[in-house]
Design a protein that fits this description.
With 344 residues, this protein is of the alpha+beta class. 68% of the residues lie in helices and 11% in strands. It has helices at residues 2-13, 20-31, 35-48, 53-63, 67-113, 118-167, 178-195, 209-216, 218-235, 259-274, 305-321, 333-343, and strands at residues 199-206, 241-246, 249-255, 277-279, 286-289, 292-298, 327-329. α1 crosses α2, α9 (218-235) crosses α10 (259-274) and α11 crosses α12. The model has no long low-confidence stretch (mean pLDDT 85).
Amino acid sequence: MAFAELALGQIRSLRQTAIPRNYEIWYVYATGYNPQLNKVVNETLARTGKLTESDLEQIYETYLSHIKTTDRIDKVGARVIGEIDDVVLLIDEALAMSATYSDSLACVSEKLATALNREQVKKLVDSLVKTTHEMRDTTKVLEDRLALSKAEISNLQQSLEAIRAESLTDPLTGLGNRKYFDRSLETAVASAIETSEPLSLLMFDIDYFKSFNDSYGHLTGDQVLRLVGMSLKQSIKGQDITARYGGEEFAVVLPNTALRQALTVADHIRRAVMSKELKKKSTGEILGRVTISVGVSMLKPGDDMDSLIERADACLYAAKRAGRNRVVCEADPEYVAETRNQVA
């Protein structure tokens, strides 16, 4: 709701039309999901004091258009198909050349059997040598073209992998995005159910994040998000999965991890975040320390992805209600009290 209010506030203050495109631009600006968008918006406002319809259209098409990734995939896919068509054509040419060479060998063989003198034999051998050289040259050209096609297809494959990774990455923090989280958690839950291995989920929320944005601006808010993202990267290793769940909320999936171990990981991350001082880049002013609240749940019989998230989220809310800067799991009194209040 806070992000929505900020987005609508910007539309009002800049006297822009309240259409979905403009709302999306300002909502993403408020969340800090796209640092490049924020930079362009800030620079344009600093330079002209406003955003024209042309500015808004350009920003949307460059940074938010949903067909962008699809278009890039389509273009790479078309190039891959083109390369495959070229390879098929090369193979057809090679088969035709091979058939021609085979016919030449058969013809020379028949003529050699009926050759009457040395001169005729020499003429046939010279013809065969010439055909063989032509076949060798054609094969060399074919090999070179196939090598180029192989290299091009390899490059295109890397481009597709880069596009795929980009579509699953939060650009501000470098962590997985919500789409990545949903896919990874679904796979992890299915694997844990199949193997009967434990699986835990941590849900994080930055304490008083709105106050940072209101007091110091969105650029500092972005810095806070990056700080937490960096702490998660430094604390989480191996098969564990980290993601920015949305806004100022983050998630960590811990396969093969029981509740007690998950609590230890959660508290380690909480302390790692709190140990870092936040400094305003423009002035060097120390803004204090960032704290997070954490909710922890563990997969139970009969659970699915949604129920696991729901309990972790309830634990997170309980940690907030209990004073913030703490870890609460579903076995803690704070969570039990929270669920009782919800039932009541």
